[in-house]
Amino acid sequence: MAGQDHDTRTGGGDVPGRPHARGGRAVQRDRAEDVDAYADEELTAGRRRRAFSPARAPWQWPDINECELREQNPDLRDLYPCDGICKNRLGGYDCRCKPGMKGDAIKGTCTEKLPLAAKVTVGIAAMIVVLVLMVMVHQLLKFRRFYEQNGGPVLKGVKNIRIYTRKQIKQMTNNYRRVIGEGHFGKVYLGTLKDKKQVAIKKSIKVDNHMKKEFTDEVIIQSAMRHKNIVMLIGCCLELDVPTLVYEFVARGSLYDVLFKCRDKILVGTRLWIAAGSAEGLTYMHSAGESTIRHGDVKSANILLDEKFTPKVSDFGTSKLLARGKDEMTELVIGDMSYIDPVYMEQGIVTQKSDVYGFGVVLIELITRRPATYDAERSYVANFVEAFVEKRGRSFIDNDITSEADINLLEMVGGVAVDCLKPNPEERQDMKQVEHRLLEIVAQSEDYSQKRNFQGDLSPAPDDVAFLKALGE
Q: Which of 118, 120, 379, 385 is buried deepest, with most CB atoms within 10 A?
């Protein structure tokens, strides 16, 4: 029938003497019987016999199942042709092409709708779709496995942490386009959130399964760190073999870069502000929460500066939870050798006093503006300590500092550094004591009230002001 995929043709006449539609042509079947009556006739084996009856109108003639007849008697197939699906009806039969074919089933012209080339194309396309789906399912299962291995079920309930998808991280970084930091740990990329806020996305190098097991604890530690002098962890992506961390972006980069890659003069007031703020951040870390925390890799490269030169302690990749009053034994060398506590190197003992030692080296860098170096004799630290003990500390102070008052201030900072670097950890002050001593030095600075002069607002935080007021009471 026109407009349909399966053409249907009508055929068959039900009784002798009745016009018979065959392929669109009327065929008259002659009969010898009287038109007023006809005798019983054997039409096919098993077919019921019709009794002699008086003449009837065409619509009263008994129905003959042409489809059944042609199946039971092959000789009748020419009489009732159908090269498709035969369906009986009153007064004839319908014949249509089989599914997937088109044409005239009565005439035997049914052909497949799709040519061979089209079938091949469809088959290839179907295979590609199946392969793509298999790859997608494999990827989804892999991402799910990474998510679970990296502590997703635990971290999804942690306060202050947002879990990002792999796709979101890729969008944030514009397909990891801009690298803003790189080291032995991996790379740091600049990213942008939907609200246009910039973030730093840290993608670490591949680590072993043992370190992966510690990742959940590390993220929980960092998520609890909410302080103006600590870089804030915003979220993480767990759908990767190595988890990716999302931090707040700190505009000026590291203290190391400011000291040694930029030759702009740095006022003493700014150096004191950076020293005191960094000490405050470490103090907060050491005393935050119910458990004791140590950083493990304190160095100038891990102290970042914002646009106002406010220091922010960063990179907690080696931070550890320690039982209160206990030390940690480890055989793994962690951190930069130039800042590592000798006790840790010799005995494998890690404590918060190890952070104090590393901070003492940072103070030397602030005073001298010379980068820390490592050798077997630890001459960088040893020479500085020896000079200050022998009252020759001025020879190590940055040549840009010429004011007698400023030199005196840096000499006081040098005294703090020497106490941080004592060989016996028990003789070192804790970070809270170091912070207080540095704030006392800040209070003595002649330019304390003019710290905005060096490219930014360097005024102290409210809690520092309160402390300084308490000192004067």
A: 385
One domain for residues 310 and 364: yes
Strands 328-329 and 92-96: unpaired
Binding residues: 203
DSSP labels, 304-334: EE-TT--EEE---TT-EEE-TT--EE--S--
Q: In the annotation, is 36 catalytic?
A: no
Instruction: Using the 3D structure, point to which of 248, 278, 293 is the last residue of a domain.
Output: 248
pLDDT of residue 124: 92
pLDDT score for 40: 41
> Could you tell me if 166 and 286 lie in one domain?
no
Q: Which residues pair with 186 in a beta bridge?
A: 183, 204
Residue 256: CB partners within 8 Å, gap ≥ 6? 299, 300, 301, 303, 365, 371
For residue 121, being part of any structural domain is answered with: no
Residue 131 lies in a domain: no
pLDDT computed for residue 350 by the predictor: 78
- No. of helices (H) and no. of strands (E), the chain: 13, 21
Q: What is the pLDDT of residue 322?
A: 44
Which of the following is catalytic: 94, 297, 355, 447?
Answer: 297
CATH code assigned at 190? 3.30.200.20
Residues of the chain with pLDDT under 70: 1-61, 206-213, 289-292, 316-335, 446-473
Query: How would you class 209 by CB atoms within 10 Å of its CB: exposed for 0-12, middle for 13-18, buried for 19 or more?
Result: exposed
* Domain assignment present for 227: yes
Are residues 107 and 161 both part of a single domain?
no
List, in order, residues 6 or more apart from 53 with CB less than 8 Å away.
37, 38
Query: Given this model, what pLDDT does residue 133 score?
Result: 92
Residues 433 and 431: their CA atoms lie apart, in Å, by 5
Regarding whether 373 and 294 lie in a shared domain, the answer is yes
Q: Which domain holds residue 68?
A: 8-112
The structural domain count of the chain equals 3
The answer to whether residue 147 sits within a structural domain is no
**pLDDT for residue 14:** 44
Per residue in 138-167, pLDDT (tens digit) is 888 887 888 777 777 778 878 888 989 989
